Amino acid sequence: MKNQFNLKTVTVLVALTTAAFTSAVFAQPDINENPNGVQFRKLDTDNDGTLTHSEVASEKLFTKKNFAKADLDKDGTLDQKEYDDFKSEAQNAEVKRVANDSVITTKVKSQIVKEEGFSGFQISVETHKGVVQLSGFVDKAEQITKATELAKSVEGVKSVKNSLLVKS
Questions:
Q1: Pairing of strands 123-128, 131-138
Q2: For residue 168, what pLDDT is reported?
Q3: Mean pLDDT on 108-132
Q4: CB-based contacts of 101-106 (< 8 A; 24+ apart in sequence)
Q5: What is the DSSP code string of the chain?
Q6: What's the pLDDT at 39?
Q7: For residues 15-37, average pLDDT
Q8: What is the pTM of this model?
Q9: Are residues 147 and 162 in contact, defined by beta-carbon separation less than 8 angstroms?
């Protein structure tokens, strides 16, 4: 019964945290949606209405490879639409990645809390791009291996980094 309560509590807390984070991400003003194109014009240092690779070099998103992908008409510059479309696509992909990582974290934590002998609040679970990081303390060395197995069993997990330690 205690594990069921912990599982429900953890699931609700993680869901609320994920919802709050996702709401905050969507609530952020996207300067590219500004009809005046403030960010685009700020980068357009020669005021010609297009961006060269050197003009967008300050934005990490626009590597040479990504600039080439964004330059749909292959003229060596980005117009406002090419810039906005590529940046929007990248932002949408990042939101999706964060949401997927949150789901993985929730599922891994749920698996650990359900497991007999684990106290889920002693184990921290973080996920980035499908890589799960486990940290915290367990009572027995066997639990370190078991936690890794549980994490690996969750769909979407690419790998597990286990930094769990046995309490002394």
A1: antiparallel
A2: 77
A3: 88
A4: 101/127, 101/128, 101/129, 101/130, 102/14, 102/18, 102/21, 102/22, 102/127, 103/18, 103/156, 104/130, 104/132, 104/154, 104/156, 104/157, 105/14, 105/132, 106/11, 106/14, 106/15, 106/18
A5: -HHHHHHHHHHHHHHHHHHHHHHHHHHS--GGG-TT-HHHHHH-TT-SSSB-TTTSTTSTT--HHHHHHH-TT-SSSB-HHHHHHHHHHHHHHHHHHHHHHHHHHHHHHHHHHHSTT--GGGEEEEEETTEEEEEEEESSHHHHHHHHHHHHTSTT--EEEEEEEE--
A6: 85
A7: 52
A8: 0.64
A9: yes
Among all chains, which residue has been given the structure tokens 């069993």?
Answer: 153
Domain count, the chain: 1
Backbone angles phi, psi at 164, to 5 degrees: -70, 145
Q: How far is CA 142 from the centre of its chain?
A: 30
Q: Looking at the predicted structure, is the pLDDT value of residue 2 above 50?
A: no
Contact by Cβ (8 Å): 164, 136: yes
What pLDDT sits at residue 1?
45
Q: Alpha-carbon torsion 18, 19, 21, 22, what sign?
A: positive
Q: Which domain holds residue 160?
A: 2-166
Residues 119, 137: Cα–Cα separation, whole Å:
9
Query: What mean pLDDT value characterizes the chain?
Result: 84
